[in-house]
């Protein structure tokens, strides 16, 4: 039926991200190069209010970015609560390649990025600042399904975290996940996205998974890792994602009544799959020829 996928990524903005990543693949770039290039497309887009520049700030007005990148052999790097640098995913990659560590946070991550030659940029755009100021009038923090970062006055777009998974021409896998996190989060809050095993997991023997939605929920079930392990046990990507969403629903019951969580997976044979708590999650699937389709995931509710 459908040809094997070589790239999957979350939400509608996965389409341009996959296009950039596929171009890297065609030029024989590594899986890491592919997913980094894709993630950077979303980070650079000022019109999306939940990744990179243009992201909504925390409740004190600071845009703080979380990102992770990894290959399928355990090489990984991550930054949490990084400020003033657009391409958090590229800083994460430098953490992977130029330090003995996996995760750098906050001031230390920023100092490392500057040391590596990254330039500072004001990440809080006038549009995002205006929405934050309106939010301050009520300061009501209540994540809403598919729209924790949308429906805000000011016309912010409804895109969310980008997670992108890829297979290169050699068959090796990699993934990346990058976000400004939940809009109007507490200062210092870190979500699932930059945490290996929660927002992203990649294993060349099995496949890869990523997540989007309320990060606290994904953290509670080690979402991405749980999906990869379910695939290792023999489930296909759709079924693996479904199993972990069902587990989360059993674990949390009414506490996740208004939340959205979506998990997305790609196994090493190129089978793509996803499952969400509620309707509305879309993901982009690209095959080796560069054909991309946008798929609407099934959901529990
Ligand atoms: C977070 N999971 O920081 C991210 C946000 C997100 O759709 O994916 N929103 O919790």
Report the major sheet.
8 strands, mixed
Terminal CA distance reads 28 Å
Q: How many distinct beta strands?
A: 12
Write out the strand line-up for the largest beta sheet, numbering strands in chain order: 4-3-2-6-5-1-11-12
Name the helicity range. 25-40%
Please mark out the parts with pLDDT under 50 across 5 or more consecutive residues, or reply none.
Answer: 152-157
GO molecular function: N4-(beta-N-acetylglucosaminyl)-L-asparaginase activity
Protein name: N4-(Beta-N-acetylglucosaminyl)-L-asparaginase
EC number: 3.5.1.26
InterPro entries: Ntn_hydrolases_N (IPR029055), Peptidase_T2 (IPR000246), TAT_signal (IPR006311)
How are the secondary structure elements laid out?
Elements: E1 5-10, H1 14-26, H2 31-44, E2 65-71, E3 76-82, H3 88-98, E4 103-105, H4 106-115, H5 126-138, E5 162-167, E6 173-179, E7 200-203, E8 207-213, H6 215-220, H7 223-232, H8 237-252, E9 261-267, E10 272-276, E11 282-287, E12 292-296
Parallel strand pairs: 3-4
Antiparallel strand pairs: 1-5, 1-11, 2-3, 2-6, 5-6, 7-8, 8-9, 9-10, 11-12
Helix pairs in contact: 1-2, 2-3, 7-8
This protein binds N-hydroxy-L-asparagine.
């Amino acid at each position: 039926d459908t040809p094997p996928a070589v790239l999957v990524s979350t939400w509608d903005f996965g389409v341009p991200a996959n296009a950039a990543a596929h171009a890297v693949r065609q030029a024989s770039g590594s899986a890491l190069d592919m997913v980094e290039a894709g993630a950077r497309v979303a980070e650079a887009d000022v019109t999306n209010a939940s990744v990179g520049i243009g992201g909504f700030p925390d409740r004190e007005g600071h845009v703080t970015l979380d990102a992770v990148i990894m290959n399928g052999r355990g090489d990984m790097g991550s930054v949490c609560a990084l400020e003033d640098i657009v391409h958090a995913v590229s800083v994460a990659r430098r953490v992977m390649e130029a330090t003995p560590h996996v995760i750098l946070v906050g001031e230390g991550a920023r100092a490392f990025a500057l040391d590596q030659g990254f330039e500072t940029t004001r990440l809080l755009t006038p549009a995002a600042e205006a929405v934050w100021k309106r939010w301050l009038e009520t300061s009501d923090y209540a994540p809403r399904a598919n729209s924790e970062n949308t429906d805000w006055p000011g016309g912010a777009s409804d895109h969310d975290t980008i997670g992108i998974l890829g297979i290169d021409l050699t068959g090796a896998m990699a993934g990346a996940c990058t976000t400004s996190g939940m809009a109007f989060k507490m200062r210092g809050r870190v979500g699932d996205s930059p945490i290996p095993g929660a927002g992203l997991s990649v294993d060349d023997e099995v496949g890869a998974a990523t997540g989007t939605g309320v990060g606290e929920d994904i953290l509670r079930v080690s979402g991405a890792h749980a999906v990869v392990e379910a695939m290792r046990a023999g489930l296909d990507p759709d079924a693996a994602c479904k199993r972990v969403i069902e587990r989360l629903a059993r674990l949390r019951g009414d506490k996740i009544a208004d939340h959205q969580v979506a998990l997305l997976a790609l196994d090493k044979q190129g089978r793509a799959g996803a499952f969400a708590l509620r309707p509305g999650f879309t993901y982009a699937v690209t095959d080796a020829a560069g054909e991309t389709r946008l798929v609407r995931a099934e959901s529990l509710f």
